[in-house]
Design goal:
Helix content: 10-25%
Radius of gyration: 18 Å
Strand content: 25-35%
Largest sheet: 5 strands, parallel
Structural class: alpha/beta
Distance between the termini: 38 Å
Number of strands: 10
Shape: globular
């Protein structure tokens, strides 16, 4: 009977090249004589030691749906909407003909909302940019950098933001930037 316990490995990478490797997908348990299955979790090198605060009300989720060129966000929207009985959800999405500056101000203001958010969720296109923390597309051909949102993100973290989820490509620099601002739980796609 195989042993069913897990061996936990927490991995931190200083090198961007090492961080891009699919560590979680490798099946290495049998190769190293491990008696159980190995589970690999990534741990950022720049995480701040801050305990997660329990939520004593309905959780609040801010959802930003970005440029959907060649993407289908129906499943993302349905997954978030399925949480509506136990959460308060606010969607922000570009509409054709909308003023881009107004959209950017709306995103800035919503992130910094004084009521606070528990989860920030983005779905769309993104790209790595180590100078600005990464860029994500909010409308066709329009990108917003994480650095441009530095101040509202700091306010959101102060007001209780606990998790950021980016369902977009190339999110390592986005995760590192958010963690450097003090967010302790970030979920991003690598490539």
């Amino acid at each position: 009977k195989p042993n069913s316990h897990w061996i936990e490995i927490f991995l931190s990478c200083n090198s961007k090249e090492l961080a891009r490797l699919p560590w979680e997908a490798w099946e290495i348990s049998g190769n190293f004589g491990a008696s159980g299955r190995i589970r690999i979790s990534r741990t950022p090198t720049n995480i701040l030691e801050k305990p997660v605060q329990p939520i004593r009300r309905k959780a609040r989720i801010l959802v930003i749906i970005g440029d959907d060129n060649h993407l289908d966000f129906q499943a993302d929207r349905e997954a978030v909407k399925s949480l509506s009985r136990m959460t308060n959800i606010k969607f922000i999405r570009w509409q054709p003909g909308a003023n881009i500056d107004k959209l950017k101000r709306n995103i800035w203001n919503k992130i910094a909302d004084s009521n606070g958010w528990d989860i920030l969720f983005f779905a769309g296109h993104s790209d790595e940019n180590y100078l600005t923390g990464g860029d994500f597309s909010i409308a066709p051909g329009i990108y917003l950098s994480i650095d441009e949102l530095k101040e509202p993100l700091k306010i959101a973290i102060k007001n209780g933001l606990q998790v950021a989820i980016f369902n977009s490509c190339k999110g390592i620099s986005i995760a590192e930037y958010l963690i450097s601002l003090g967010l302790t739980q970030v979920i991003v796609m690598r490539e």
